[in-house]
Amino acid sequence: MNDYVELTVTVSPRQPGTDLLISELADAGCESFAETAEGFQAWIPKDQYKESLLSIVNQLDTEIGTASVKTEVIEGQNWNAEWESSYQPVTIGHDLIIRAPFHPKTEGFRFDLIIQPQQSFGTGHHPTTLLIAEKLLTLPVSERYIIDMGCGTGVLGILASMRNASKVDCVDIEAHAVENAKENAVHNNMGGIEFAVGDTTWLRGKSADVVLANINKNVLTAAMDDLRNSVKAGGDLIMSGFFTTDAEDLVKCAGNAFQLIEIKSSGEWAMVHLRKNG
Question: Model pTM?
Answer without folding.
Answer: 0.76
